[in-house]
Amino acid sequence: MWDASEKTLYSVIVFLVLETLLELYLTMRQIRVYKQSKTVPKELQHVMNNEKFEKARLYGLDKAYYSIFKMVLCDILILQLELVYGFMVLVWARSVEISTTIGLNPKSEVQVGCLFALLLNVVGMLKDMPFKIYNTFVLEEKHGFNKQTAGFFVKDQIKAFVLGQILTIPIAAVFIYIVQIGGQYFFVWLWVFVAAVSLLLITIYPVYIAPIFDKFRPLEEGELKQSIHDLASSVKFPLGQLFVVEGSKRSAHSNAYFTGLFGVKRIVLFDTLLVNKGLPEDDPSLTESDKGKGCKNEEVLAVLAHELGHWKLGHVAKNIVIVQVQLFLIFLAFSQLFTYGPLYEAIGLPAGEKPILIGFMVIVMYVLAPYNTLITCIMTVLSRRFEYQADAFAQQLGYAKDLGNALIKLQLDNLGFPVYDWMYSSWNHSHPTVLQRLDRLKTISQGKDKPKSQ
Question: Which catalytic residues are annotated (predicted)?
Answer without folding.
Answer: 307, 391
